Amino acid sequence: MIKIDGLTKIYNNNTKKAVTAVDNLNLEIKDGSIVGLLGPNGAGKSTLIKMILGVMYPTKGFVTIDGKNTFNHRKQLMNDIGIVFGQRSQMWWDLPAMDTFSLLRRVYRVDKDEFDMWLDEIINEMDAREIVNKPVRLLSLGQRMRCEIIAALCFKPRIIVLDEPTIGLDISVKEKIRNFLVYLNRKKNVTILLTTHDLTDVDAICDRVIVLNHGKVLYDDTSSEINEKNSGKNCEIVYAPHGREKGDFPFEAETVDISSKKIITFKGDTSDVMKAIIWCSQHGDIEDVNITKPKIEDIVKNFY
């Protein structure tokens, strides 16, 4: 278990006033969970990650993994945590990815037979067999990111931290990485901490969402709870040309005129939507109706 107790980080600068990047956080992350860590730039996500990894000393409070302080016991815990930075590489640029994997096996002192079996499994699951023997400089961004994740897992860590792993990737590669992370969590019980601005990742794989802003927790609950609490629908009704409504709306809505058409948009639950559609059909000729759920992006923006 990762336990964060009263964690605070204040940056002091002689030319500027002190900046509180992380402000008295108290969190627990259970083993085997997938947690999405969200927040705008400057929310404190990267600072929090660095303190969880033990590479930054907090101003106050502490982070422990299974009771061990991550800063004081960083060397003891290094075999337990894998890390992937979407913007930084741990691969040797001119060498095949397999050479980096072999080097990491020696660095982390993993038994060769155990390593070979584990590496073969995750290469297959990541569908990376055809790319791991190519020089890293010849790989596409998506191919390199798949190899970066494999490299972070070479020593079979219990926890993996991914900092925007799908940034800039196409849809098919994102889907492949998401499926692999779900496999890793469900089959191998690996705890995953994911920071991202792509909220589709969160909606697809995370069982818990933590939203940060200005170093504080704005929201901490399950991803399904986010959708349940925001179960309203967006409805757009388009009147046919010359089929405009007669009378004032008995509901709150926004309207816009485009050519000879009028488009009405409003929000509400299923019952509200049906009542509005019935009213509009009785007061004009409807050409089209479009009903959608709010995007998770819009829901999270409201927390900010």
From TrEMBL:
Entry coiled-coil feature ranges: none
Domain ABC transporter: 2-239
Protein keywords: ATP-binding, Nucleotide-binding, Transport
GO molecular function terms attached to this record: ATP binding
Domain of life from the UniProt record: Bacteria
Protein's name according to its UniProt entry: ATP-binding cassette domain-containing protein
Native source organism of the sequence: Catonella massiliensis
